[in-house]
Give the backbone structure.
Amino acid sequence: MLIEQIRTDLTTAMKAKDALRQRTLRSVIAAVQEAQVAGESATTLDDDGVRAVLTSQVKRRVDAAEAFESGGATDRAADERAEIEVLEEYLPAALGDDELDAIVSDVFAANAFASKADMGAAMRAVNAEVAGRADGRVVADLVKSRLA
C-alpha cells in the first residue's frame, strides 16, 4: 500500500537526516491519519484515498507558495515548492496538454455535451477519466472553452 511506502521512506529519510523529506512525509502521514478518522466512523484509506490526500497536500503547498511569492518571502516559497516535488513522487505522472485535450475530446464525443448547462456533468465525466492526473483549474478551463 502507498501509505506503507511513505512510512518506509520516512524511516529512510530519518536515517539519512533529510529534514525536508522528513517534514513533508510526516505531514502527509498526519493528513492521512486525520482523513481516516474524519466523519462518523474511522476508516482505512486505500491507495486512491491516500492519493487524494496527497493531491490536496500538493494544492495547499501550491497555494502557499503563491502567497509567499506575492508577499516577497521567496525562501519560504522555495521550501513549499521543494515539498511539492517530494509529494509528486507518490502521485501518478501528470497528463500532458495533448493527452488532456484528447481525453476531453473523447468524453465530449461520447456524451454530446454542448451547452454551459452541461458543465457539471462534463466536469464529472472528465474528472473520472483524468483521475487526479491534471490540475483541476486547467481541466475546468478546458471544459469551459469547449462549452462556450
